[in-house]
TrEMBL record:
This is Aldehyde dehydrogenase. InterPro entries: Ald_DH/histidinol_DH (IPR016161), Ald_DH_C (IPR016163), Ald_DH_CS_GLU (IPR029510), Ald_DH_N (IPR016162), Aldehyde_DH_dom (IPR015590), Aldehyde_DH_NAD(P) (IPR012394). PROSITE patterns: ALDEHYDE_DEHYDR_GLU. Gene3D superfamilies: Aldehyde Dehydrogenase, Chain A, domain 1, Aldehyde Dehydrogenase, Chain A, domain 2. CDD domains: ALDH_CALDH_CalB. The active site is at 220.
Amino acid sequence: MNLNEPVIRGALESTLDLQRKAYLAHPVPSLAERRADLRTLQRFVRDHKEALCAAISADYGHRSTHETLLGEVFPVLDGIDHVIKQLRRWMRPQRRSVDLRNFFGARNRVIPQPLGVVGVIVPWNFPLNLSLVPLSYIFAAGNRAMVKMSENSRHLAALLIEKMPAYFPPEKLQFFDETGGVGIEFSKLPFDHLLFTGSGQTGRAVMAAAAANLCPVTLELGGKAPAIVCEDFPLRTAAERILFVKCLNAGQICTTVDHAWLPQAKIAEFVQLAKEIVPQRYPSLASKDYTSIIDQRSFERLLAALDDARERGARLIPLLDGPAFDAATRKIAPHIVLDAPADSILMQREIFGPILPLRGYTELRTAVDAINAGPRPLAIYPFSHDGAQVQHLLDHVMSGGVSVNDALFHVGQHDLPFGGVGASGMGHYHGREGFETFSKLRPVFYQARFSALKFMAPPYGRFANALLGFMTK
């Protein structure tokens, strides 16, 4: 046993106890209180925008400031604006119909109420986005939260732990760093809901730990999300959009394009386009706009996957002039990989890096069958202007989400739910679904002053028989 486990467990349990007592003392915050919490969260980001960008870059070794602003700061600020605008409507009790044969004048309502204390386990790839966007829905639903950051987000975690108490008291929100063993103990806590974003392997362990407390979980995992470029779609446009997403954050995004399916006859042209497009965006590995791989283990894993593909006969095509990688900065040039064997590491595991295998088809069914033979992905990206063809792909390939004629952008739509299916996750958040995930949609039946059940009590007589006959005819 880790000698720190009792200390870690004690600190976590005391915070949970503090937050649960605060919830019980004030279980249903008003609309005004929830909006105030959301604006405070927004104010924190605005007050510390530069420091947040610097901390995340330090955790990566180098992370493009523009990518942090685009992928983390903006979605948090803009998303909170959306939640604030919608919150009154989301909080309103829902009217439901009453079976009038049974109850005359009775009313049914569904009342969204706070669950209590929500736990959030955050990955390293978009640590600000994936902590504060969930918090916006957790606070909108009236809850309190404990947030566990990744071991690869040490600078950001330190900043959050230092600065956030000036904005929220610990009985409302508290952040925890991963100092060894924290994640294990965190997932064992009897939260009212637990949100985990990360790998499928860790997600299984989190779900198993939560099951001991019958704690409901939302799992946001990953998978091999494919782009499917159809014959009718302009190839340059497809290349520009796919490569933008694949190079963003150096491919370290759970919803990025893992690999791309293309008409067999168009693969060579796509490669030539990629050789033009990528150097225009990133002249060299030293570009300040190009992000490093998060740590040495991930850097070595990606290089090993490239070596494995090469040794098995695949063709590796770096898309930048100069060295294919820089060990000092942990940067790997964007690569296209052709003819990677089906059993290679690149084709078997989620890539999570700036490497794009291309696969060819002569019939679209080949791509559909191959995708369906694997675990259901977090997203698919059909490229076609043929509505019937797009609908065919939507009908025949199941995934967590879809962006048509682009990649990734479904995640940034504030009014769409986000979540996986099967091996890529379970549950949703974002949009109204985020509010409902962290709420108890509580059914309430209001009996009328007069109830027909008055005549239904034993001993059953003629009237009961007549009424039951009417109700069940």
